[in-house]
Amino acid sequence: MIKGFGGIFWRTKNMDVIKKWYSEVLKIEIEDWNGTIIKPQLGNETIFSFFTENDNYFPIEQQVMLNFEVHNLSETIQHLEKIGVPLEKKEEMSEFGKFIWIKDPEGRLIELWEK
Q1: Any idea what the CATH number is for the domain that residue 104 is in?
Q2: Which pairing describes strands 89-94 and 66-69: parallel, antiparallel, or unpaired?
Q3: Is residue 71 part of a domain?
Q4: Strand partners, 107
Q5: I want to staple 18 with a disulfide (CB 3.0 to 4.6 A). Which of 12, 43, 74, 95 is the partner?
Q6: How many Å apart are CA 54 and CA 93, to the nearest integer?
């Protein structure tokens, strides 16, 4: 029945600041219609997962967390350091890959993942 995700929609307090941050930090070019189309690449997958109400993987006050898959986490970390974006969680390795966290200007945690 489900073919894939049709979109992720978030409210923002300051459109210009958030668009600039996502463009500079994550290289996601936000169009004039305040969105962008990210086309999946071969081998890319989207995980849809629930966490219990009291799971502490990410802060309880944050209801949703974005996870972006990156090509190379080391290069991503170098880019973030170069532009002064602090890591909220240092590189962590697990059976699922390598992960770091950063925060957007409105305080939302974003997970960056290399499979």
Answers
A1: 3.10.180.10
A2: unpaired
A3: yes
A4: none
A5: 12
A6: 23
Give the tens place of pLDDT for each residue, 48-71.
Answer: 888 998 898 888 888 889 999 999
Which of left, alpha, beta for 94 (phi over 0: left; psi -120 to 50: alpha)? beta
Helix/strand/coil for 15: helix
DSSP character at residue 58:
S
In a domain, 6, yes or no: no
CB-based contacts of 46-50 (< 8 A; 24+ apart in sequence): 46/4, 46/5, 48/5
H-helix or E-strand containing 89? Answer: strand 89-94
Taken as a whole, the chain contains a residue count of: 115
In a domain, 33, yes or no: yes
| Number of domains comprising the chain | 1
Q: Identify the three-state secondary structure at position 69.
A: strand
Tokens 């463009």 correspond to: 23
pTM of the shown model: 0.87
Residue 64 structural domain = 15-114
